[in-house]
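ok so for the tutorial part 2 we go from a plain amino acid sequence to predicted structure tokens. step 1 is just haveing the sequence, like this:
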Amino acid sequence: MAASTATTRRQFLTLLGLSTVVVSCGTAASGAASGKGQTRTLRYQGWAGQVTLPELAENLGYLEDVKLEWVGNTISGPQDIQSAATGQIDFGGAFNGAVVKLAANKAPVKAVISYYGSDKHAYSGYYVLKDSPIRSARDLIGKKVGMNTLGAHAEAMLDIYLERGGLSRADISKVEPLVVPPVNTEQSLRQKQIDVAVLGGVLRDKALATGGIRPLFTDFELLGAFSAGTYVMTDRFLQQNPDTARTFVTAVGKAIEWARSTPREEVIARMTDIVNKRGRNEDTAPLKYWRSYGVAETAGRITGKELQLWIDWLSERGDIDKGQVELSDLYTNEFNTAGS
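step 2 — the prediction. this is what the tokens look like for a chain of 340 residues:
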């Protein structure tokens, strides 16, 4: 397994160029229990200052006797699902294009539920300073765009925007995406260390409330409402721990619907309480800007279209071969009984 962790961050973040060592390690999901016993503890990575759907589900009691074991935070979806594929954690979530790329490299994982997306409340915006001369895709040539990670949702949306703006591949290569930790992205824009800041969720709304910035475009404007990312588990984990997987996936589905149907103020109050009680020295102030998880389908069920979009996109880019990934192999709703 040491060989997999030696894979450099940069290599992995070029849309998950996984080595054969990483893929082979993915067959040994260390969290799975042997024999008849099924693990009831799920290791995972969190996000600083945010409440993930599994964390919300646990707080609501939906996980029943399944416990979450926090092993640290991440700022990268691709890194998160790599950790799941290699068995360092038991589930991970990322942008669906990264999930497709992971599967294309024959990592034995399956998407089990959607957990975030874009709608009129939950979206990623690409922001510039109000007095910035940047007004179009062509204005981005030679400019720096700050985002949480490379090779994931933010870079894909930027690529689509530039292509629709008529830029050639050569011109697109002159636009520089840079990794900036989400909590520092707004400050980096205001200090003019970057020209464009990708901001979403509470960090976006906090920055907008401060003022002095304007959107260049948003992913919601590009693609409308859509589920953008899924949680994945290894095939081995699902085979060895089907009941645990069902409890987990169903609980996340219930949490999606709870957040959708509960008054916003109540959701924010519960999230704030969760963050305060877990004692990770986090700022809860941005939580007041929370609006939605943005999941398009009821209980996060996967339709396939949200993955097919990225199979087509990656094929057109030449990142995967046509026919390399079968949609039916990518996901399952078998473990999602929320609402049924």
